[in-house]
């Protein structure tokens, strides 16, 4: 089964991360176009194994918010990429408004930088 997943890895990556379709839509497309059928749980495990992710944690979004706000003050635009894939601006704006800056305590405690697999 591992070889089967490996043979479809790039098309799954393209659909899920580049075209930004949902897991359910990836599952449907893979079954319809390639005859590849797997459960939602199998896809989730494989995504985790491959390091495919679309979302950041709340603390990561808070760091993104602080950085984008600083760049705005400096007159710069910001594009967020996760593992080299650009996150749609609509999603970034929604997440920043949801998670925002956090409390002063959280900001003082939060000294980590974004993981190296993410770029600006």
Automatic annotation (TrEMBL):
Gene source species: Diplodia seriata
Top-level lineage group: Eukaryota
PANTHER family, sorted: CLR5 DOMAIN-CONTAINING PROTEIN
Protein name: Clr5 domain-containing protein
Ranges where the record places region Disordered: 96-120
Ranges that cross the membrane: none
Domain (Clr5): residue spans on this chain: 1-54
Annotated InterPro entries: Clr5_dom
